[in-house]
Amino acid sequence: MYMEYFGLKDYPFRITPDTDYLYMSSAHSRAKAYMEYAIFNREGFVVITGEIGSGKTTLIKKLLTELDENVLVAKIFQTQLNEVELLQAILVEFGLNPFSAKKVELLSMLNQFLVNSYLDGKQILLIIDDAQNLSKRVLEEITMLSSVETQKEKILHVILVGQPELNYKIESSDMEQLLQRVSLRYHVRALTLVETKEYIEHRLKIAGITDQIFSDDIYPELFAYTGGIPRLINTLCDTCLTCSFADNHKKVTLDIFNNATHELQWNKKNDTDISDDEDRIDYENESLYQVDESDHASSERHGSSNMLNEAYIPIASRALVEISRQLKRIADSLDDK
Length: 337
Prior knowledge:
Helicase, Ruva Protein, domain 3; Rossmann fold
């Protein structure tokens, strides 16, 4: 509708995942590096979390476009499945026909496929999006599947991607076996104020325009309403451009922005901090999963690059997990009251 009016060759703020428009913030770059590291280093489990609309699915799609042909991938995006349905979905992704088999036969079929593929020099990867919807029984099934290994390395590599609830689920006391297999965990934080501005300009540039459409005084307000969540930014920016087009304005002013938020019936996010201090935000959101930078021994053992070595985080610190559990129990008890 407004594409020709603004001289755009495409709609820049679609909410569907599109790798062509992927903006690699520092958080998104690190999450992608973790997933690549898990594949390269043949790690067992990687868990990536992030709020709804933070760009996790787009990251997965970007990763898939860059994988070597020797990597065989099963992608599961529908997670309302029981154990048998999950096994069937995985086998279908690997090109097999599992629908007439019972569970024991499904397991045998999958294990045989994993072993044969490994002997053929293939690397096998299972990626599950929206993993927070998986039941604990299904997560236990995935844990058992990942136990197929040689004397030196795992045969099946698993990347679980989901909303923050996934962390609570895998940290519960009955998920100890899965948690011990997790080698990397990372939470994709929201964009900062500076990144939000860069994100909008990046998408506009990809869509074919470098002129400044949004006035500078809009960005702090836009950040306050969206909290730096890419999907919300897309929705609000698209509405702003629509309103600007309807009012016959070539630039989105603060008045037009206010009209857009009114039409969407949005309120500002109470917990939004518009500070530009990205280092402080990184520390607050990522420190739970980082290892001490002075711990070089573990890094040298794995022989990866400096950034990935510092990011390598075997979940060995049970103290952090226990703290999380205690805080959750306290919160639950307060809710009950």
